[in-house]
């Protein structure tokens, strides 16, 4: 079976384990969220690739499980250190736009864990993802107050083997958001 089928089945199984179907751990009593996130690649063989995005989110449910629907605009940018100099690598200069959804897997008071699946469109292709259509997955661990969220995440982008080039991009990072 395709690895994406296993990933989707795993997310569905984990969401069913959550017993908090009607509370919204991420949003508290708010109905909107604006967040920024940034991260760095885990693939050191391609240089330092940095990731940044801005997201607008609203609370929703996924099979009665609390969730967050996201509209994202972001950018990857790479740099390679050569002899102490920062050299711009434009092959990993990528802008993207996408829609995604986070599902709350577990919540413990103000702490929570989410899984994200999304579909993204990029402005260029590169030697790691050979298509402009990109899928993204993410796992995050978060903390929230009534108005603020802070999350640490691991994130993967790839094209699901739509083309020959599908090494993908993986990032570790942090998200900060405001609920309003």
> How far apart are the termini?
42 Å
Order of strands in the sheet with most strands: 1-2-3-4-5-6-7-8
CATH architecture group name = Beta Barrel
What portion of the residues fall into strands of 2 or more residues? over 45%
Count of individual beta strands: 8
* Number of distinct helices: 1
Order of helices and strands: HEEEEEEEE
Largest sheet: 8 strands, antiparallel, barrel
Q: What is the average of the pLDDT values?
A: 84
In CATH's first tier, which class applies? Mainly Beta
Number of domains: 1
- Radius of gyration over C-alpha positions, nearest whole angstrom: 17 Å
Topology:
Blueprint: H1 3-16, E1 33-41, E2 48-62, E3 65-82, E4 85-108, E5 111-122, E6 133-144, E7 148-158, E8 169-179
Antiparallel strand pairs: 1-2, 1-8, 2-3, 3-4, 4-5, 5-6, 6-7, 7-8
Overview of this structure, please?
With 180 residues, the protein is mostly beta strands. The protein has one domain (3-179): Porin (Beta Barrel). The chain has one helix at residues 3-16, and strands at residues 33-41, 48-62, 65-82, 85-108, 111-122, 133-144, 148-158, 169-179. An eight-stranded antiparallel beta barrel has the order 1-2-3-4-5-6-7-8. It is globular, with a radius of gyration of 17 Å.
